[in-house]
Amino acid sequence: MFFYWVMRFSDIIGQEKAKGFFRRVMLEKRIPHAYLFTGIAGIGKTSTARALTMALNCHNPSDMEPCGVCPACRQIMGGNFPDFISIEPDGQNIRIEQIRELNRRLSFAPVSAIYRVCVLQQADSMTGEAANSFLKTLEEPPAGNILILNAVEPLNLLPTIVSRCQRVPFQPLPVDAMTQWLVREKKMDPTTAMIAARASHGSLGRAIRMCDKQFLTKRDAWISRLLKLPGLSRGDALKMAMELAVKEKVKASNYRDSGEPGLLDMLTLWGGWYRDILVFKVRGPENLITNVDFTTHLKEAARSISIEGLIHSLLAVNQAERDVQRMVNPQLVMANTILKLQRLRGDAP
Fold first, then answer.
1. Residue that is last in its domain, among 137, 169, 201
2. pTM for the predicted model, two decimal places
3. Burial of 155 (0-12, 13-18, 19+ CB in 10 A)
């Protein structure tokens, strides 16, 4: 899983409330044993867990920030700190065997740390068995261990798990802050950085992937498909749908999971495209536009589709995203979506 590497709270973009909370916790020396970090992927949840690990285990902290030179800091900075554990789904789920192994490791004292930190990535993917086993750990936490659950929303977690964790919400990141970071740290040109920041919906991790040449090439091809759609016959539209489903289906899980841009990324891009058209249609502020390099095409599209058609197009794309995530047949999803989008085109009133 992608994350941008940070070592200190001061390195984390935004998330002032979360950082302020942990500074107060460390200052008062009252460290809860379990946290629930909520928010979309790529906004700093794992980075905050690493920064917390370093701050709590640093031998010579200053103003709640680690020194960066003591043995614990050097180990964490080198990525070989034995008392930071990250558990990710095995396939689609975190399984009972993974939780049992975690419980075995937690039964021993930390190797060298004051606090061992364990992060469950996509904690809401735990199977029922795994969740019940983990609940027992939360009820009787071994001393010297901090458990952090990362999830977008807690709705799919057992209420009894949620109730035993200190919830720390993380917010989508500001566009300007991400744009500046991409230009400064990734040496991106300002226009590409701004497009990626706006299209990422507040996720720096997603914005970094969108700056990748492979993604930018795919982006142009996916937008080109949308531009051609109004002029296609029903048969050609179905052919396009089948080509997209077959070409992208092996990567349908997501770019962040598969390492390549896939069907979900395309649908997210299409959703942003229709939102951009809607902004022009209602004469909204142009600083809300994501695909600024396609402004001419967006304005033309806004003249040929009604507001009602745009809203239904957005709903169609959003439904397709949900269906792909639920592992519905991608060919069926794309055929249904493409035909809906084509049918919704027409002269705007």
1. 169
2. 0.78
3. exposed
